[in-house]
Design a protein that fits this description.
Blueprint: H1 2-17, E1 44-52, E2 62-66, E3 70-74, E4 80-86, E5 89-96, E6 100-101, E7 106-110, E8 116-124, H2 156-163, H3 168-179, H4 186-199, E9 208-219, E10 234-244, E11 248-257, E12 261-272, E13 278-291, H5 296-301, E14 306-321, E15 324-335, E16 342-352, E17 361-371, E18 392-395, E19 404-417, E20 421-433, E21 436-440, E22 456-461, E23 464-479, E24 482-497, H6 502-508, E25 516-530, E26 535-544, H7 556-559, E27 561-570, E28 580-588, E29 606-607, E30 611-620
Parallel strand pairs: 1-8, 18-22, 21-29
Antiparallel strand pairs: 1-4, 2-3, 2-5, 5-7, 6-8, 9-10, 9-30, 10-11, 11-12, 12-13, 13-14, 14-15, 15-16, 16-17, 17-19, 19-20, 20-23, 21-22, 23-24, 24-25, 25-26, 26-27, 27-28, 28-30
Helix pairs in contact: 3-4
Length: 621
């Protein structure tokens, strides 16, 4: 690794020397993202005030924000709080304090310019300062003095009924009565009663959460959706809970599906709250897949009828001194279907910001990444939707799975310019053994008619290569409603070791086998919010000249492209108490959602990936 790093250290020094000093005295408040994350953008901070209904500050209130990430803070003696390093986008903001009614959750929009403020007002509970009434146990009549009210009887039975301990069903009766006066009409009353009852269970908890009820399927062509040549739709349930601790935040997530492929993922993590000299994060996950369908190739690959994968990770972001930040850590995963079941993925990086008044930053990183075939089915996604294992897979030859091992060294610089534009330039070197190949549509022919062809794939190894390249990333935050990123990279790859699956891949898909190659990749992402309709749109479009496709002669432009489109539509007429309802629709043919820390061929050597369509309801509370 030292031999790989040495030639790029000099390049990093040269790039630093070329940095323009014209902005040395300009203060930039937005933080600068890593150039390796294509869809990344500058983060923002939320500053706010918690006060009572008389305008007096409240100390000790727990404030939570739940959106693309979870964050918590506690108000100080002046009622002020700060939530730091929030990725831009919408968040559900709430506050909790003992003896006060929890605030109704509301959606706020975080922008990377740092000008995000909010004020939360809490109302004191009516019975907070007075103890509950004590009723003496007696068999005789009870004399009670009450204000005269001709609207109800005053005998002993009526008094006991009015003062009996309330149950959930009696509280629901009040919710029904309140909905009778709702001007939204019958739809709100019909949906509102159970939704209000369910969401009221979280009123007194200082946590945030989200649950998704989704349906997903895969197809090759749009017309397949109206035929039998489509994968049977699967129902997916997802639940996430996040709660603050003394110094950090706890998160628990889980997702499950049932059918001929029953599977689930469960994960938990802890992140220490900033600002701390050691902002560390650790987590653990476990996933299971069991197949009961009729694909003989999938059944033969699962000798025990199921697959199990467990992983754990720990990373520390250490601020050594004001200009120097060191990040290091590792991920460990154990796959029960591999011969060598234990895989390690260490990573270390250092970033230096020479001037506190200039956003110019230098970054250098070294990493080793070990990836098992089919890992995308079991490991939780860090940027996309959480889905349990949805597809089956088998080895393309000899029934042996070979993990990919990827070493990378990278040096880069980045700076924020006028107009909220972040520009990053990087150079990198990769060394990869057993580059993974993913082939769809080569299974048993009679399975394609039932849709099994799009729900099963074969994996193999394309061999080993060394590559050197460069890239540039430009991110522009037009405002808090529109943000765009463009990433372009080029690399020269020299394949130096033949794959053990060479003969089989030559017969099945020769386009995945290379000798010398020049790889060009262009990835663009756009995230937009339409305030008038409360609609959020996220689009990723990827063009890569190295994408393998046997029918490239017929449709070269389409086979070289990958895309991912997600649309979230808020449903304000379904918002009850703390819940924020959204409708979600997504269509994608990206096989790997991770856009950073991957080899240049990870997505390019996925042949004929089907399109996945997903829809459902998202509820944040």
């Amino acid at each position: 690794m030292i031999r790989i790093l040495r030639p790029w250290c000099g390049i990093g020094v040269v790039v630093c020397a070329l940095a323009s000093p014209a902005y040395a005295q300009r203060t930039v408040t937005a933080q600068i993202p890593s150039v390796k994350q294509v869809a990344a953008a500058s983060h923002g901070d939320l500053h706010g005030l918690v006060q009572d209904d008389r305008g007096q500050p409240l100390a000790g209130a727990i404030v939570s924000a739940f959106g693309s990430t979870s964050a918590f803070a506690i108000s100080d003696n002046e009622g002020r709080f700060t939530l730091r390093d929030l990725p831009p986008g919408p968040y559900l903001l709430r506050a909790h304090l003992q003896e006060y009614v929890p605030s109704r959750g509301r959606i706020i929009q975080i922008s990377p310019d740092g000008r995000n403020t909010s004020t939360i007002a809490l109302t004191r509970r009516p019975d907070a300062s007075s103890p509950p009434p004590v009723v003496a146990a007696t068999l005789g009549p009870v004399e009670v003095t009450e204000p005269s009210d001709t609207g109800h009887p005053h005998d002993e039975v009526a008094w006991r009924m009015r003062h009996a301990k309330r149950s959930v069903l009696k509280d629901a009766d009040q919710a029904i009565a309140a909905l009778d006066h709702d001007p939204a009409g019958g739809l709100t009353r019909a949906v509102g009663t159970p939704a209000r009852l369910a969401s009221s269970l979280f009123d007194d908890l200082s946590m945030s959460g989200q649950f998704n009820l989704l349906t997903t399927t895969s197809f090759d062509r749009p017309q397949d959706l109206f035929s039998m040549n489509v994968e049977m739709p699967k129902s997916v349930a997802f639940l996430s809970l996040a709660a603050p601790g003394a110094q950090g935040d706890w998160t628990m997530r889980g997702t499950i599906t049932q059918g001929d492929l029953a599977s689930w993922i469960l994960a938990g993590s802890y992140a220490r709250r900033s600002p701390a000299s050691h902002a560390y994060e650790a987590g653990i996950s476990y996933a299971m897949q069991r197949y009961l369908g009729g694909n003989g190739e999938a059944l033969a690959a699962m000798r025990d009828g199921s697959r199990n994968v467990g992983s754990m990770y720990a990373f520390d972001n250490w601020t050594v001194a004001r200009p120097i930040r060191l990040s290091y850590g590792a991920k460990y995963a154990r796959y029960d279907y591999l011969t060598d079941r234990d895989l390690w993925s260490p990573r270390a990086s250092v970033s230096v910001q020479p001037s506190a008044h200039d956003s110019f930053t230098i970054r250098a990183s070294m990493s080793r990444r070990e990836v098992a075939p089919g890992a995308e089915e079991f490991l939780p996604s860090s940027i996309g939707l959480w889905l349990p294992p949805q597809r089956t897979f088998a080895a393309v030859a000899r029934g042996i799975f070979q993990p990919e091992r990827h070493d990378q060294v990278e040096v880069g610089v980045e700076r924020a310019w006028l107009g909220n534009v972040v520009v990053g330039v990087r150079v990198f070197e990769q060394r990869v053994d057993n580059q993974l190949v993913t082939l769809f549509g080569i299974g048993v022919a009679d399975l394609s008619a039932s849709g099994a062809g799009v729900g099963h794939y074969d994996v193999g190894s394309a061999g080993a290569y060394d590559a050197r390249g460069w890239g540039v990333t430009v991110t522009r935050a037009v405002n808090d409603r529109l943000r765009a990123t463009v990433d372009y990279s080029e690399a020269d790859a020299n394949w130096n070791r033949r794959s053990p699956d060479f003969d089989v891949l030559t017969a099945l898909e020769s386009s995945v086998l290379r000798s010398e190659d020049h790889v060009r990749d262009l990835t663009a992402s756009v995230e937009s919010v339409v305030p008038s309709t409360a609609t959020r749109v996220f689009v990723i479009y990827k063009l890569n000249a190295a994408i393998a496709a046997s029918d490239a002669v017929l449709t070269p432009s389409m086979t070289r492209a990958r895309f991912d489109v997600q649309v979230n539509q808020a449903l304000p007429f379904l918002n009850f108490t703390n819940a924020q309802w959204e409708m979600l629709v997504a269509v994608s043919n990206l096989f790997r959602e991770e856009l950073g820390e991957t080899s240049i061929y990870d997505e390019a050597l996925v042949v004929r990936p089907p399109k996945r369509v997903l829809g459902g309801v998202t509820v944040r509370f």
